[in-house]
Amino acid sequence: MKKHWIIAALLGIALTGCENILDKTDLSAFNEEQVFNDTLLAKGYVDYVYDQNLPTWPTGDFLKCTDEIGGESRFFEGTVQVNTVQDFGIGVNATNNYGKIRSINQFLAKLPGGGLSEDVKNRLMAQVTFFRAFRYWDLVQLYGGVPIVLEPLEGVGEEAKEEAAIPRNSTSESIALIVKDLDFSIANLPARWGNTNDWGRITSGAAAGFKGRILLHYASPQHNPNDLPERWQAAYDANKKAIEVLSANGFRLHNSFSDLWFQEANNPEAVWVTCYNNKVGDQINKNMTWDNNTRPSYLGTAGGSNQPTWEVVQAFPMKSGKNIEEKGSGYDAQLFYKNRDPRFNQTIAFNGATWQINGNPNYRLWTYFVNNKTVEQKATSTGFYVRKAIDPNLAPGAVANAGTDWIEMRYAEVMLNFAEAACGVNKLDEAYTQLTELRKRAGIESGADGFYGLNPKMTRAEMFEAILRERQVELAFEGKRFYDLRRWKKFETVLNGKSRNGVTINLKASAPEDFATRRDGMNLDSVYKNYMEIVPKKLDTKYLVNWLPEYYFFALPQQALTNNPRLEQNIGWPSGTFDPLK
């Protein structure tokens, strides 16, 4: 097959990565005519597109640009420049957004002329149009409108360079292209793939859910500062359709919030999934890194790098469903862990928590200090660890080869997207239905009124805030918080002028000398009341958070502008004339 690369003049940027998650056919030995006339070879090309484009587990660098974990960031320091974000496609590179789009366009241009049946062609193309939408959305959510390229450009010589000097399309035009591609995917993909070997392939429900996610973002204040009702209506219609398609085909909330990560094929909550596996014999090694990087280092082979802030610890409501700051919540700052939403214990590992891990159902985690010295081999900087999606049964030596699938879109997210869109069109009853179902699965008490701790008389604005907080809890550490804060333009009110915080937990001098040998058998409430001191700790010590308004649409890198003089810079950046809101 001919190998083409994208023109250097086109910009690209990606915050997602990819792993070898689908077996690939080596296409280099076949010519173009063979590939597009042979079902297996054409499918091999599609599998290559999956391999290049499927998203992966969130990374620490991604998560630290939120209030979920600590860590220095130029975005929070307020020192982002035009060229700060360097992962863009201005060179001859098949791994950036436009390079990947070129491979996609090559397939979409060539397959229709092949000899395969129309049904086979449409099903293959529908998987590929999904990923073209994914790649363009990756650009649009960062920059606004970008050059729309629907044909494979040759990328060689001055003539090709001129061919690729394409101006930016408006944001509305870019969204329209993305929606069109997803509509084709929805219409031509199965609701379920019949073969378990096809687990992880995009379904019509996944395409519908992704369309709903995008149109929800497009209706949000970042893109919709004037609260245009037609944007919310489009988001509502798309997300309602996604719920209908998915639920009609067996997708639903998993019975267990904590266990949903460890059921792979036919997981009812996994709408869009990237498959991994443990290495067995000669099987290709497709390991994830989240587990090894997240658990305490002494419980695996590396790790401890994803440490929750005090802010996210406090975001979880009580078991009654009331937020901790609400009157009558019963929250006790000294016993911060007590009577919380059950998702708290399934997401956050804290000092004294019982944590089933390494096959030990009774392991007690201790993170306290004695005379300014940690009792851990290596101390957590916040006082906490993430326990979400950490496999409780992996032996320490197996952690580096963890094969837990990444679920990019859970049915829970589709429910939250639908709830928010319903709120946007003032159908608050439908929003309540989604939130109460999620809280019921979580194990929150229903209360006498059946509203699971929610205020039963919320205004539209109050419901928006309740949904964002529910997203913060339900989707914690899943890579969604950054974009929620950004699309709602919340960085200034939630974080600016503040430091993210952790805690240091000190053992008091009054504790018994043999505390370390007795602690695992002691009542935790008694331990905290009598022997523990909780001291706030600032995590941002070099600066207070200073997110700037221009970060809601990032600058195109200067090299992209130099390579393609027809590109315009975003308003708000030097010499910017392009309005990303149009």
UniProtKB/TrEMBL annotation:
One matching Pfam family: SusD-like_3
Q: What is any one of the record's Gene Ontology cellular component terms?
A: cell outer membrane
The record, for InterPro entries, names:
SusD-like_N, SusD_RagB_dom, TPR-like_helical_dom_sf
Query: Which cellular compartments is it found in?
Result: Cell outer membrane
Q: Which UniProt keywords apply?
A: Cell outer membrane, Membrane, Signal
| Residue ranges occupied by any SusD-like N-terminal domain in the UniProt entry | 95-216
The RagB/SusD domain covers 268-573
Q: Which family does it belong to?
A: Belongs to the SusD family.
Report the protein name in the record.
Answer: Starch-binding associating with outer membrane
